[in-house]
Amino acid sequence: MIKATNINKFYGNLQVLKGVDLHIKKGEVVSIVGPSGAGKTTLLQILGTLDTLSNKNDSSLLINDEDVTKMSDKAMAKFRNSHIGFIFQFHQLLPEFTALENVCIPAFIKGTKKEKAELRAAELLEFLGLSHRLQHKPNELSGGEQQRVAVARALVNSPSVIFADEPSGNLDSESADNLHKLFFDLRDAFGQTFVIVTHNEELANMADRKLIMVDGSITR
Ligand code: ADP
Ligand code: ADP
């Protein structure tokens, strides 16, 4: 699913990623842990094509067998919207739209027709236990519910891989537990691949594989 070879990232003279190699299989749930400043977010953003690496010429990043480092910006944006889903610590839902509408947005960007997008969004929200919340706006939902709406939004285009950066960092422990179980339910139901940066030990240890990142390298 993901094959990254020799990923380097510099910010000025500061080398934040030091030749990272990574191979993640389809349907795998992988956690990435490590101290603050280790480069976890930077790595996730590069793997998710939100950021670019510093050494295009002697590296490669294959997602679904396509080398995203060789794509134009436009092709990459299109690829990202169809193949990749993101979940962040702060869900970034649009406050003026309902839960259903928020989930539909990536589908609309992809060009999916309104009826089809809404059907898919409603199905996902139902799967996530939110069928009674379709018409609610974000500020009418609890933190855990808002985060599940963000999960549905990440899934609406059926991406093959989901990148999550501290997805439960802002949730109480019960909502966090529910969200963590959900990732595995989704993987079991739809075969999605998850790459999750987290400080939550329980989530990190539930993963099929836990990668430890220190000072720009995966050490274990
Ligand atoms: P982590 O997610 O493990 O906390 P980050 O990937 O956020 O680590 O950051 C790794 C290092 O890169 C840190 O030293 C951070 O200050 C630096 N860094 C991250 N983003 C930028 C940026 N846009 N410009 C300059 N330095 C950055
Ligand atoms: P976390 O530690 O939660 O992974 P950070 O606080 O390191 O996140 O980074 C938050 C945001 O700030 C990121 O978008 C990152 O790229 C940016 N950032 C981090 N460090 C720096 C820096 N030294 N200079 C500029 N931007 C930075």
UniProtKB/TrEMBL annotation:
For molecular function, the Gene Ontology terms on record are: ATP binding; ATP hydrolysis activity; transmembrane transporter activity
Assigned keywords, A-Z: ATP-binding, Lipoprotein, Nucleotide-binding, Translocase, Transport
Q: Name one Pfam family in it.
A: ABC_tran
Ribosomal protein keyword on record: no
GO CC terms of this entry? membrane protein complex
What domain of life does the UniProt record list for this protein's source? Answer: Bacteria
Q: Does the keyword Transmembrane helix apply?
A: no
InterPro entries assigned to the protein according to its UniProt record, in alphabetical order? AAA+_ATPase (IPR003593), ABC_transporter-like_ATP-bd (IPR003439), ABC_transporter-like_CS (IPR017871), MacB-like_ATP-bd (IPR017911), P-loop_NTPase (IPR027417)
Extract the CDD domains matched here.
ABC_MJ0796_LolCDE_FtsE (cd03255)
Residue ranges constituting the ABC transporter domain according to the UniProt record: 2-220
Q: In which family does this protein belong, per the annotation?
A: Belongs to the ABC transporter superfamily. Macrolide exporter (TC 3.A.1.122) family.
What protein name does the entry list? Answer: Lipoprotein-releasing system ATP-binding protein
Q: What is the lineage of its organism?
A: Bacteria, Pseudomonadati, Bacteroidota, Flavobacteriia, Flavobacteriales
